[in-house]
């Protein structure tokens, strides 16, 4: 099952609101609009927000067909200035096992391009009649009214009725917020600080794993605005600072916290049934019954 995905910038609210972007996905087999979302721009976080909602509700498609944009796909030959060969979107889809098919021209994405052409006519007119002028109301209208009507009118039956979406596994659901995060690699400084987006993060001494100076760590910028720092699949404890914290004496490494072992009571040793003490009982001497001669 292949899903075509793209975004379209337009004055969707005409003169009633600012220009914004509509993200949309369409099923290549049925012409069904699987999901739509109005966002400010076609960036990493809006795209991840779109797909997080999609995966949780509908599962994973086998493949996604998309435009050759830097947000979604980095071609190593065309992005020499980028330190990472893979874009955030490509990395995330790879972790989820979803194949990406890249279109090199708008004509290659025929269905989704025709969809936007239709929406720029019908959807704009419908929102004009309802006086919709912001993304929040537009998304509500899109989900509850427009897309159900649109799909009933324009979608078609597939040749095979089977839904080829795969449900997220329990582990994938647990890790989805981390997978759909903006990830960056940083190096631990000599004072165990990390700089990221003009902020400093001081690693604390209490950690679940041993950390050394110059270790490479991954910083996750998540959709809820939180920051997570991890190394070797362990999340680290830190304190954020606007400026670099004052240096103090640091160890060469921050060792992992060792949990104290619980004290166990020593059991009194008892000989087994085959022990010589049990097999050969002690010979008792009754001195009271003996006669001693001087």
Automatic annotation (TrEMBL):
Alphabetical list of InterPro entries matching this protein: Integrase_cat-core, RNaseH-like_sf, RNaseH_sf
Gene3D superfamilies: Ribonuclease H-like superfamily/Ribonuclease H
Organism domain of life: Bacteria
Gene Ontology biological process terms, A to Z: DNA integration
Single GO molecular function: nucleic acid binding
Domain Integrase catalytic: 1-175
Coiled-coil intervals: none
PROSITE patterns: INTEGRASE
Classification via PANTHER family: INTEGRASE PROTEIN, TRANSPOSASE RV3428C-RELATED
The protein, known as: Integrase catalytic domain-containing protein
Organism: Candidatus Portnoybacteria bacterium CG23_combo_of_CG06-09_8_20_14_all_37_13
């Amino acid at each position: 099952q292949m899903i075509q995905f793209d975004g379209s910038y337009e004055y969707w609210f005409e003169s009633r609101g600012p220009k914004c972007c509509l993200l949309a996905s369409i099923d290549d087999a049925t012409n069904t609009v699987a999901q739509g979302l109005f966002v400010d721009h076609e960036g990493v976080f809006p795209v991840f927000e779109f797909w997080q909602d999609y995966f949780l509700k509908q599962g994973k498609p086998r493949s996604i067909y998309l435009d050759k944009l830097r947000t979604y796909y980095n071609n190593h030959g065309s992005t020499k200035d980028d330190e990472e060969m893979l874009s955030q979107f490509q990395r995330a889809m790879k972790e989820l096992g979803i194949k990406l098919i890249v279109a090199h021209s708008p004509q290659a994405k025929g269905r989704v391009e025709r969809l936007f052409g239709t929406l720029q006519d019908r959807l704009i007119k419908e929102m004009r009649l309802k006086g919709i002028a912001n993304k929040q109301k537009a998304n509500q209208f899109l989900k509850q009214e427009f897309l159900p009507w649109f799909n009933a009118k324009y979608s078609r039956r597939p040749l095979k009725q089977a839904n080829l979406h795969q449900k997220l596994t329990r582990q994938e659901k647990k890790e989805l917020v981390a997978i759909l995060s903006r990830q960056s690699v940083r190096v631990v400084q000599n004072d165990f600080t990390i700089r990221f987006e003009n902020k400093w993060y001081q690693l604390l001494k209490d950690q679940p794993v041993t950390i050394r100076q110059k270790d490479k760590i991954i910083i996750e910028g998540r959709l809820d605005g939180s920051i997570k720092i991890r190394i070797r699949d362990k999340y680290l404890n830190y304190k954020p600072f606007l400026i670099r914290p004052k240096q103090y004496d640091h160890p060469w490494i921050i060792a992992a916290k060792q949990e104290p072992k619980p004290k166990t009571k020593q059991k009194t040793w008892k000989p087994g049934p085959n022990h010589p003490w049990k097999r050969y009982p002690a010979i008792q001497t009754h001195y009271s019954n003996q006669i001693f001669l001087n």
